[in-house]
Design goal:
With about 70 residues, this protein is mainly α. The chain is built from 3 helices and no strands. The protein has helices at about 5-10, 10-30, 35-65. α2 (about 10-30) runs antiparallel to α3. The protein is elongated.
């Protein structure tokens, strides 16, 4: 599931940069939010990142098979 191949995947880097920018913007612009809300937002973004990464890999693999 995870391995060194994940970091060699271009899709990983294409998705990582926008997600990291969003996380930095959230932490920089909303310092008055409670710590719990920031943790929940961060966890949601992490789940969205990995979900979109694996979905993109899955769909690309299906297209290569055809």
């Amino acid at each position: 599931m995870f391995g060194i191949d994940t970091f060699k995947n271009k899709r990983f880097w294409v998705l990582l940069i926008p997600f990291m920018i969003v996380i930095v913007v959230i932490f920089a612009n909303f310092p008055h939010m409670s710590e719990t809300i920031l943790i929940v937002v961060t966890l949601v973004l992490v789940v969205l990142f990995w979900g979109s990464f694996f979905l993109w890999n899955h769909l690309a693999g299906k297209n290569e098979e055809n």
